[in-house]
Amino acid sequence: MKFTNGYWLGRDEYIINSPMEAFDAETVLADTENYVSDALRVSAAYQPLRSRSDMLDVGISTITVFTPGEDIVGVEIKHFNQMDKNPLYTLYPSHVEPKISKTETTASLKSGELEVTFSLHDKFNIDFKYRGQRITGSEYKAQASIDDLSGTELGQVMHANTVTGAQSLAAPGTVKRAQHFMREQLSLLPGTNVYGFGERFGAFVKNGQSIETINMDGGTGSEQSYKSIPFYLAGKSGVAGNPGTYYGVFVNESQPTSFEVANEVVDRVSFSTRGESLEYYIIAGDTPKDVIGKYNRLTGGSVLPPKWTFGLWLSTSFTTDYSEDTVMKFIDGMFERDIPLSVFHFDCFWMKGFEWSSFEWDNEQFPDPAGLMQRLHDKGLKVCVWINPYISQKSPLFKIGQENGYFIKQGDGNVWQWDLWQPGLAYVDFTNPAAVKWYKGLLKKLLDMGVDCFKTDFGERIPMHDAVYYNGNNAQGEHNYYTHRYNDAVFDLLKSVKGADEAVVFARSATVGGQQFPIHWGGDNLSQFHSMADSLRGGLSFLSSGFTFWSHDIGGFEENASPAIYKRWTQFGLLSSHSRYHGNIQYRVPWLFDEEAVAVTRKFTQLKMNNMDYIYDQAKQSVAEGIPLMRPMYMEFPDDPNTATLDRQYMLGSQWLIAPVMAESGEVEYYLPAGKWQHILDGRILAVPENGRWMAEKYDFMSLPLWKQVD
Length: 711
Known about the structure:
The chain is α+β, with helices and mostly antiparallel strands. Among the domains are: 12-151, Immunoglobulin-like, CATH 2.60.40; 307-390 and 431-624, TIM Barrel, CATH 3.20.20.80; 642-710, Sandwich (Immunoglobulin-like). It is 21% helix and 27% strand. It is built from twelve helices and 37 strands. The strands form eight sheets. It has an eight-stranded antiparallel beta sheet. A six-stranded antiparallel beta sheet has the order 3-13-14-20-19-16, covered by helices on one side. The chain has a six-stranded parallel beta sheet with strand order 27-24-23-22-29-28. Strand 10 (114-119) and strand 11 form a beta hairpin. The model is unreliable at 154-172 (pLDDT under 50).
C-alpha cells in the first residue's frame, strides 16, 4: 500500500507519524510464552525531544527486539497496546541467549552473528549487521504509524492542523476513528534482488512490484496467488571470490499485508498492515539455502512425503465424463503401454453435481466404491479423491452443519453463504473444534473405504467481511490462515489413520507453515507454452518461500492441450518433484494425443522411476536442511551472478539441471554454470569455463536439456 506522494510528501488522505528519536532503551523479558530469553525494548517519540514540552501531545512507538533462533531477530512495533484478534502464525523457536548492550548513543541486541542496533537521542534508525557487515536497515522516517482519514469526520480537523505539526484531536467519542496502519521500510543494498512472497506468477525477481499477501482463486496468470507468503529473500550474488549477501524477511501477520518492493521508495522494501502493531523477523545466513533453511525450521519444518508420491499420478480430469469403466480403461491402458503409474485421482464428480461436498460417491457411476478401491490397490495403485471445505446448500450435510454451528456465520447469526462455485455454499469453520471433529469423521469413512489420500482443493475464497468465526478472531486475519487450519485438519487425520510416514495431501492453497502438509500444486494453468513458463516461475517463487515440494497440472488445466504442449509438459512434469496429469475438459491419457505422446510419457516416467533413489535421497536431504528439492538456479549457485534472474530452468536436487522446452519449434536457450556437466539423455560431456556458458539448442520430443554435474 502506498502512502507517500513522491519521496518527500505524504498523500493527502494520510497522517504519517514516524519515530523521530528513541529516548529510552531497556532490557526486558520477551512478553510471549514462546521466547524466554531477554529482549531489548526501545521507545521512540514521533517528534524530536528538545525540551520537556516536546513530551506532551505526542505519540510513541514501542519497538521490542528478541531472538527466536540463532541469526534471527524478531522486531515487534506497537503504537497502541491493543488486541487485534489476528491469529499469529505458529513458530518453533530455539532457545538463544542474546547479547544486549547499551551506550549513551546506541542500544543493540545480537543473536549469533546477526546484530540489530538502534540510535538513541538522535535521528531514529535501526541497522542490521551480519558478521559485522550491514545487510539492511530501517532508516530515518522509514517506520510509520499512519491514520487513514478518508471517509472520517476527523479528516478536516486533522488536515487543518498538519501545517503547524499540531495533532490535537476532537473530544474522544465525538468523531469516527480513522483506520490505522503500521509500516516499515527496509533498505536494499545496490544490486540486491528480491525473491519469494509465495507462488507469484509475475517477474521472478520482485524488484519494482506491488504485492498483496492475500490468498485468492485467480489462476496462474494474474497478480493473484493461491499461496501468499509474507516472506521474501533478499540476495546479492558473490562475485570473484567476494561472498554474497543474503537475508530473509518474514512478516508475522496473517491478515493481508502490502509490500512495495523497490517501488514506492526504490531502494527499500516497504510493508504495511492494518492495526496498531507490526511484527517481522530478519533471518541472516551465508547462502540462500542457509537463510531458507532457518526460515523453514522457524515456521515448522518440512515433512517427507512417502516414496510412492514421487511417481506418476493420473486424474479423471474435472468436467469429463467418467465412471468405473472409464477409470479402469485408462489404468489398464497405461499398464498395457508399459507406463508406470503410482496414484489414481478421482476429481470432483466422484460426488454428484450441485452437492459438493457431500463426501458420498455418485452411486450411478460408482456403484461399488469399496470394491473399486480394492481393485485399484490390487494393481499396486494408491487412491486419491478430491475434497474441499465448502458445503453446498443442496448437500445433505448442510442442515447438520447449520444446526450445529459448524459454518462461518454472518454478523446477524445466519450462515455466510453465496452461489459462487456451489449453490448456497457455506464454509466449514475450522476454528470450531466440534466442526473439525465432524469434518474429520466424514473423511475417515472414505479412508476406511480404501482411499489413501486427499486432494485438498480450494481454501482461498474465504469471507473477510461480515464474517464471524467461532473463536471470535478478526475475519481478515482468519482469511489467509484458513488454509492452514483446513490442511492441518486433513493431514492430522491422515497421520492418525495411515501413520505419519504415509500421510500426504495434494493441496492448492497455502500460507506460512504449510510446508508441514505436503504436497502443493500450482493451480489452474492454461494449456499454452506461456502458461508453462508462468507455472514454473510461480513454482520457483513458491520454493523460494520455505516450501520443499511442488507440482503442477501436466498439459495445463484449462482448454484442450495440443500434442506438442502435452509432450513438452510431460517432460517438464516428470522432471518435477511430483508429477500429475490433470485437466478440465480433456482426458490426459497420452494415446488420445498421438503415438509419440505415448513414447514420451513412457520414456520420462521410466526415467523418473529408474532414478528414484537419487530423487528420494535428495528429497530426504532437502527436508533435513529445510530447502526445496526443485530449486532455483541462484539457490544452488549463489556466487554466479548469471543465475540471479533465471526462471525457465532449475535444479532437481543438487546435481540435475533441467531446462524445459517451451516453444513449438523445440528451441530452447539456457545457461550452464562453470563445471563439468554430462547430458543424461545423450551422454555428451561439457567442461564449462569459469564464466559459465549460454546454450541455444533444438530438441525433438524425446529429449530436452537434462544435465548432471559430474566430478
